[in-house]
Amino acid sequence: MEKVEIDDKEKIPSVPAELPLLPLKDTIVYPLTVYPLVIGKEKSIKLINDVTVGDKILGLTAQKKADTEVSGISDIYSVGTMARILQMVKVPDGTLRVLVQGIERIKIAEFVQTDPFFRAKVNSSPEKTEKSVELEALMRGVSEIFQKMVTLAPNMPEELSAAAINIEDPRQLAYLIATNIRLDLPQRQEILETDSVYEKLNKLMQYLNREVEVLELGRKIQGQARDQMQKAEREYLLRQQLSAIRKELGEETDEGSEIKIMREKIEEAKLPPEAEKEAKRELGRMEKLSAASPEYSVIRSYLEWMTNLPWNKTSATAIDIVKAKATLDEDHYDLEKVKDRILEYLSVKKLGDERGTQQQEGTKMREPILCFVGPPGVGKTSLGQSIARALGRKFMRQSLGGLHDEAEIRGHRRTYIGAMPGRIIQALKRVETKDPVIMLDEVDKVGADWRGDPSSALLEVLDPEQNKDFRDNYLDVPFDLSKVMFITTANQLDTIPAPLLDRMEVLHLPGYTEHEKLNIAKKYLVPKEIKANALKPEEIVIEDQTIAAIIKDFTREAGVRNLEREIANVCRKTAKAVAEGKPTPITVKAGDLHDYLGNPKYFAETAVMIDRPGVVTGLAWTPTGGDILFIEATMMPGTKQLTLTGQLGDVMKESAQAALSYVRSQTEAFGINKDFFEKTDIHIHVPAGAIPKDGPSAGVTMTTAIVSMLTGRLAKHDLAMTGEITLRGKVMPIGGVKEKVLAAKRAGIKTIILPEKNKNDLDDVPEDLRKEMEFIFVDTIDQVIKAALKEK
Amino acid sequence: MRPDAAFQNVWESFGSCTLDSTMVWRPPMDIYETADEIIVVLELAGVAEDDLTVTLFSDLLVVEGKREQPITDMSACHQLGIKYGHFMSEVDIHAPVDHGKVTAVYKDGFLNIMLHKID
To answer: In terms of CA atoms, which chain A residue is nearest residue B92?
Structure first.
């Protein structure tokens, strides 16, 4: 398309010597651009009125500071623009709207008039346009970026782009761009005052680049925000639709209703203040989540736990001591001492509750934790159940054996996947009351490793001062455990940590005598096993002697577990016979036991063992009850060595050395060669070789064995002894008297040598047993030797 | 007419607020086509015929001229709404036309230019 060349010179007005001068605030009008102005100041209005009447040409320049009144030439920039008025309109509020067109750049020399408006002496100030290839290239580049900016900017009409494309004059392009980009006043003025058009365009290029960057970034951010919002909106809409579809199908898994149900549950549960606050807070969080989010199910599990715990439910009836005693007797044979202690505890509790003495601070009685210690099978667990029954409380049993992980007691924090509360809280949920009897079995087998120390967690649980505000990690709110009655059981006390042992009151259940076992079997075990094996009571008769035979020949234990098992065997075989059609009742005689149970497993060992000098029967204590052991001593030629075998512990080894030293110091009294040790080796062995043994109570036994060996005197085979020895020959007291006596009886021992100081311990031994056996109390080892060894 | 509206019109007819100093305004223009002709109509009141030039190039029609303010002697001016000064209109002619047969008639403020199409 051809462009028309027009003679410019006659159409552009020349710059007169003087011009009316209109100062502009924050605005610069460039040559070759059209600009709208709002005229409000009285001075300016007068100027415009004057100019429109005349040739419509005026001078425009910017004020240096927008907030000050122009008083002199220093308040305005000295480079401005000559312009003509194209349009003018008066607005009802008194201002004028004027459209001006910039024509040429001018320099303002000085004011010649300040009232009623400014007039100034002016000079033309043309710019430099050096046509060159660089200028052409720059123009093209600037034009491109300007067009890009117009596309990106939201408030710039696309016509600007078209205009930029059509402009061939670089000066015009520069001024068009300068009018349409964001610049502050000094920057705008600088563009005007720069003489070289090339420089103008260069500067504008920088500004344009910056503008484009900002716009692109803004667009990107907006786009992202829009995407996110759209996504969220879309999800919301889809969920609404899904909910509506569900309702149509009749699947009312409305989240709202679930929240409502949970809220009602929380209200009903009547939680204590802190727990209620926490529950409501979590419920609030749950409301805001959608049902699909994993947090939702975590919170729901938590709230279900919280609402299902028995915060306020108790089941204990008022304590009736008489009824309690009756219940305990009903369930258990003998165990008088233990039952008495339990009844004492219950009586104190009853009185305390009735009289309210427990409310006073400081005098509040600490509820002891009962600890039943004894071998397996003596009835520790059933005693706990019995107590619960007597008190009308729920019973819950938790085995702590092998517990390594502290989190089992304390629970895991909710942040862990699959977190659950600890065992205590779980137990409480199961029994649905907050005052059950909880039996913690095998508290002596609690382990401790890198995962934590469960026994320390137990300290908190079992301490009545602390457990009122027991904090489970999962629940994270205090739970009142003070109404729970804890009972612990253990097989031995050695492995229980001292702080824990301190809190507990230990009750020993040492095991039963044969007589007691017989009674237990008759009253409890036999009827139980008959029922368990689907027999009717009239179909089977087990004689007393049979039971006694089972006890003697087929069991060697402190408890009654194996006895129960053997009775079960008998009943089962009988059931088989009955099922085969044999005539009832079937009587089981002692002589028939071979058919039912096979060969006898245990028999009296002592007569067999003691067949030569140097062997003596002693008594030992193990976690499974008492037991007899044999000390064997032998001598051979050698070089003064003492060998000790049989998996002996250090204490026992020292005991053996003390025994030997005593004998060496007393050779005259015993009638032994005083150099007996010089050319000999002595070996003391304690069978069985695989079982570890320790303790000082075999001291007298060892001494007697050595004397027996050296003098050649046999020990009595139905006699056993126990006692610790000193170098002076004194016999010191030992422990576990009742267990040892029972063990001796089981093994067929008739006479027991005990330290004098253990005389009172015999009170624990049942009277019938005391009558059946002979007890010799000794102070010195001489008495022991005299009683134990036969004459040569 | 409300003053703002008057201003809007001004804005639109000045297009992209840039003009070179030679051209101040653009007259409104219609372009029609019939079976035989292309007709261009410009609204050009107040332009003296001597001040008006119509030129047909190979595919471009250019109309230029100037409009003088009729009354210049006044004590006050309350509104300047009519466009005065130099103007130029350019029209691209897409169909082949007979350069010898071009007529222009200026009557009642309208300038009608008829161009005969060549088949």
So the answer is: A1
A697 is catalytic: yes
Is ipTM over 0.90? no
Query: pLDDT class for A501, splitting at 50, 70, 90?
Result: confident
b vs e for A133-144, b when ≥16 Cβ sit within 10 Å of the residue's Cβ? eebeebbeebbe
Check whether A83 has a pLDDT greater than 90. yes
In one-letter notation, the amino acid at residue A476 is D
pLDDT at A577: 87
Closest Cβ opposite residue A160 in set B16, B57, B62: B16
- For the stretch A106-115, contacts whose Cβ atoms lie closer than 8 Å and that sit 24 or more positions apart, written own/partner, are A106/A15, A106/A19, A106/A59, A106/A79, A106/A80, A106/A81, A106/A82, A107/A78, A107/A79, A107/A80, A108/A21, A108/A59, A108/A61, A108/A73, A108/A76, A108/A78, A108/A79, A108/A80, A110/A73, A111/A21, A111/A72, A111/A73, A112/A18, A114/A71
Q: Tell me if B21 is assigned to some domain.
A: yes
pTM tops 0.95, yes or no: no
Which of A34, A36, A88 is the closest to B19 by Cβ? Answer: A34
pLDDT in tens, A99-129: 998 999 999 998 898 888 899 999 998 888 8
Contact status of A92 with chain B (Cβ, < 8 Å):
yes
Above 50 in pLDDT, residue A362?
Answer: no
φ/ψ of residue A472, rounded to 5: -80, 140
pLDDT digits (tens, 9 = 90+) for A289-332: 777 778 888 888 898 888 888 888 887 677 788 888 888 888 88
Contact A162 B57 (CB under 8 A): no
| B77, part of any domain | no
Least Cα separation, residue B106 to chain A (angstroms): 23
Catalytic residue list contains A270: no
Domain count within chain B: 1
Mutate which: B4, B7, B14, B18, vs A, most A CBs within 10 A: B18
Percent over 70 (pLDDT), chain A: 94
**pLDDT one-digit tens code per residue, A519-548:** 888 888 888 898 898 888 888 888 888 888
pLDDT at residue A604 in the model: 60
Rounded to a whole number of angstroms, the distance between the first and last alpha carbons of chain A is 150
Nearest to B27 by CA among B76, B63, B69, B79: B63
Nearest to A89 among B3, B20, B64 (CB): B3
User: For chain B, what is the radius of gyration of the CA atoms?
Assistant: 16
Q: What CATH number should be reported for the domain holding residue B38?
A: 2.60.40.790
For residues A113 and A59, give the distance between their C-alpha atoms in angstroms, rounded to a whole number.
14
User: Which residue in A has a C-alpha nearest to residue B91's C-alpha?
Assistant: A1
**Two tokens at A287?**
């409301």
Domain carrying residue B87: 3-67+82-117
Annotate A697-708 with DSSP letters as a single string: TTHHHHHHHHHH
| Average pLDDT score, chain A | 85
pLDDT at res. A484: 84
- B-chain residues near A11 (CB < 8 A): 21-22, 86
Amino acid at position A720, single letter: A
A640, A677 Cβ separation under 8 angstroms: yes
Cβ proximity of A108 and A64 under 8 Å: no
- Read off the pLDDT of residues B45-55 as tens digits, 9 standing for 90 and up: 999 888 899 99
